[in-house]
Amino acid sequence: MSASIAVVGAGPTGTCLVERICANAADLLAWPSLDIHVIDPYPPGGGRVWRREQPGLLWMNSAAAGVTLFTDESVQCQGPIRPGPSLAEWLGCEPGRFASRPVQSAYLSDVFWRAVNTAPRGVRVHVHATRALDLTDVPGGQAVTLEDGRTIEADAVIMAQGHGDVTPTGQELALADVAARSGLRYLPTGYTADLDLDQVPGGEPVIVRGMGLAFVDLMVLLTSGRGGRFVREYDGELVYLPSGREPLLQVGSRRGVPYHSKTGYPFRGARPPVPRFLTAQALGEGPWNFRRDVWPLVAKELGFAYYHELITAHPKRARMSWEEFEEAYAAEEWRDAGMRALIRRAVPRHLDRLDFDRLDRPLERMRFGDSAGLRKWMLGYLGADLERRSDPAHSADHAMILGLLSVYGVLAELGLSDPWFHGFLSYIASGPPGPRLEELRALAKAGVVTFLGADLKVEHRDRRWQAQSPTVPGGVAARTLIEARLPAPSVSRATDPLISALRDRGEIDEESGLLKVRPADRRLLDRSDTPHSRRFAFGPWVVGGWAAGGFARPGLNAPLFRHADALARIVLSEATATQIRHVA
């Protein structure tokens, strides 16, 4: 008799779990054999989002050296460390290269099959290229109903589907209805590689709402993907040569600016000494309001990381030693006047001081007389961002990003999440490669992209979509509106058949759109908050799983590995204990 575990989802999250289960099996397997059933209609490793069948024009948004799915000595976990190559090492390429999505898919596939092929004796991995439709209790375990008609029985099941589709929101349905009745086009939120962009006409204005990563992918597919070319002039300036088939993209968002580009230099400083201030003791008893109770501690951590690098790596730009600054900094609260006075005394240049409000909303309260004025400002803003993110003189920015990643993990450990902070982190630390913003700048100079400003509002009027921002007077009109954003997680609107079946029976519940689990062991909670002994969930759609949703960086004790390892050990213990009970 064999113990058995079912993992629903074969993307990066499921792959990491399979690797950790295989790695821990030799220590924890109390039965002669273990069967791991991996269920996903898409090939294992990449899953749906990172499948190989997508345009090579789409890049990863992380440099190859900053991506790994292998544990290293920095990872603090109970299970064995099984090192392996980062994406850059696997490719044998420059650390700063941004690989294409299909290349990353091949790397993830290699990670999956390496885990399978090096599994301990007695561990068998079965890949089922189909969907899981339902999950029910059976004597001694769980029964997983598959779309191909089969049923798999397992001692424990982990739901690790990753990002999934959802039904449109009420607002999206209303806009789609308006479009249908008015002969307009409307593309709701979705994964860019899955959108039908053939319906977007060339040569016409198109309103795009959103300037994050989804917008960058959209921009690429509608310009380079339609035959346009970027060339570099003799003076080094990047210029776009239109094909004539690209639409005229009129783009705005809440901030009105794109995500900051990735840093383009190797960080050679010491890792910031954080976390230090964001602790359970400092937070006290909940419930907490994130902006009021948690953000001041987070901001203090980020400031600590930033000024540590600025003062130690660039001492000529500071008026006091790190030891003097550190002692005074620890004694002040982030929002207090004493903290502001300390920073003014220590850091003479205003541009060297950290200003989160300015960083988060650069267009706040800015007004331009016309779109030409905004365009000039945006070209300067993009150029300054590219210059700053490629200059190691601003390594304090990089240190703050490392601090953000550390804080992200601490918040996950404490079970704290906040949509605003998640968006802030993405905007600061998860932006596109620098060359993509250089392309955006070239597209704006070529007239293919027009910037609309911040706090963009779109409505239907005079049989057109009308977009307007307080940043500039007037507005623009178009027959096509694209929501350049990923859909927000929502268990109640999920189209995944397994989630739908469990939701409709009340066997799962949601919190802020995410699957509810018991934080200690990630067991699924039903509507009465009762944990299920054999059902688990892990990944970005799970409460507390947002820090495990991205790729891990080597050498940073990534939460993805720590959490996956802990869950693998819990589930292995459950599965093997079940087998012992069966024998008894």
Describe this structure in words.
The chain has 584 residues and is α/β, with parallel strands linked by helices. The protein has three domains: 3-166 and 489-582, FAD/NAD(P)-binding domain, CATH 3.50.50; 170-259 and 433-483, FAD/NAD(P)-binding domain (3-Layer(bba) Sandwich); 280-364 and 391-430, no CATH class. 36% of the residues lie in helices and 17% in strands. The chain has 16 helices and 22 strands. It has a seven-stranded mixed sheet with strand order 3-2-1-7-22-21-20. Strands 8-17-9-12-13 form a five-stranded parallel sheet. Helix 1 (12-28) runs parallel beside helix 3, helix 1 crosses helix 16 and helix 7 (290-313) runs antiparallel to helix 12 (395-413).
